[in-house]
Amino acid sequence: MPRKTSTTKSNGTYRGSGAYTANGTRRVNGVVVKSKLPPDALRVGRSRSGLGLFAQVPIRKGTFIIEYWGKRLPADIADEIGTKYMFELNERWTIDGSDRRNIARYINHSCRPNAEARTVKGTICIYAQKNIKPGEEIAYNYGRRYFKIFLEPIGCKCAACLAKPKRGSRKTNTNNARRRAAPSTAPSAA
To answer: pTM of the prediction?
Structure first.
């Protein structure tokens, strides 16, 4: 079963290893990650494609947002499990992020993402790819393989794709509309 590909995420409010320290850093699987986000900076809420993860505070480009965490499984075992919260770490390992305490699992796909996943020492960390405003949904690109198998058959529901005009529904050119409405100058056969 194809898994999301890209890079990772974590939330200090749900995991001891991701807790914030006094100087604004966090330890994620033994790696100190600088994060300027307060623990209540993210919320899970309704989005166009179900539930999504939203920013509560402004997030600057390049800022670490969250770690995608869960049970680490060998890729062959992960292929047999039928859950949609699998995140491919590499060809050998996959992270099963189906635990509801892993709020990074609520980050949806976008064809024009504002975040990106990066692999950092065996973890998947999500970073802001551009400045994110409060109330804006956090989204990253799940990768071509995942998109082709899961999203393309049902149609992508990201904001970028929903804003595209549908095939066959051309916008009417105002000049064409005026031409059709103008009286004909051809002599009439009376």
So the answer is: 0.69
